[in-house]
């Protein structure tokens, strides 16, 4: 994206995404107008359409930016020169922390995915599937080497872990008793305990 900025030096695309994320989280995607987004971002509709073709493109980018971050981090963990148990635990904890750090984005996505066009919906699902397949690959690597139990299929273990993550937006509160790292550690430990032979 171009680095056109406002008077304070914030790139316009970032201002638009920040405004859209806040409004979508507060009001819902379908109850937020393009006019409200551009007013909150302090830009014109022309600026929005210069960087994003539509409100739907903003919704897609809200989720895509988190998934890109998580995919980059999973790639890093998968390539680490470390035992598979350590790589899986680090990846399992990291996806929890990055989801909590971007809780509005995750919440918006799960509440609003049905607003995406079939083409964009298919694209997002393919990107998520790539992430889940790579995560599953770490589990399978451990199962094949005998470090992890084969009793539960790797795909079901993945669904178990990500089912917990997808519900974070319904119960996690920043001012609650557990920090993001503590939640991440507990969920990662539960995952590894489920895989022990």
UniProtKB/TrEMBL annotation:
It comes from the Bacteria. InterPro entries: DNA-bd_HTH_TetR-type_CS (IPR023772), Homeodomain-like_sf (IPR009057), HTH-type_TetR-like_transc_reg (IPR050109), HTH_TetR (IPR001647), KstR2_TetR_C (IPR041490), Tet_transcr_reg_TetR-rel_C_sf (IPR036271). Pfam families: TetR_C_24 (PF17932), TetR_N (PF00440). Residues 33-52 bind DNA. Residues 10-70 form the HTH tetR-type domain. Keywords: DNA-binding, Repressor, Transcription, Transcription regulation. This is TetR/AcrR family transcriptional regulator. It comes from Streptomyces chilikensis.
């Amino acid at each position: 994206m171009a680095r056109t900025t406002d008077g304070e030096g914030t790139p316009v695309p970032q201002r638009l995404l920040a405004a859209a994320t806040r409004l979508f989280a507060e009001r819902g995607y379908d109850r937020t107008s393009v006019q409200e987004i551009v007013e909150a971002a302090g830009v014109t509709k022309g600026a929005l359409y210069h960087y994003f073709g539509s409100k739907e493109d903003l919704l897609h980018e809200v989720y895509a930016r988190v998934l890109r971050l998580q995919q980059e981090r999973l790639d890093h963990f998968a390539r680490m020169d470390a035992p598979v148990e350590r790589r899986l635990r680090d990846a399992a904890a990291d996806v929890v922390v990055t989801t909590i750090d971007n809780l509005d984005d995750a919440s918006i996505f799960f509440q609003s995915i049905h607003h995406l066009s079939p083409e964009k919906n298919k694209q997002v699902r393919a990107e998520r599937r790539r992430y889940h397949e790579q995560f599953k690959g770490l589990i399978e690597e451990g199962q094949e080497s005998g470090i992890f139990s084969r009793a539960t299929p790797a795909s079901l273990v993945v669904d178990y872990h990500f089912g917990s993550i997808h519900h974070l937006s319904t119960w996690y509160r920043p001012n609650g008793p557990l920090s993001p790292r503590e939640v991440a550690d507990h969920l990662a430990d539960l995952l590894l305990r489920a895989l022990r032979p």
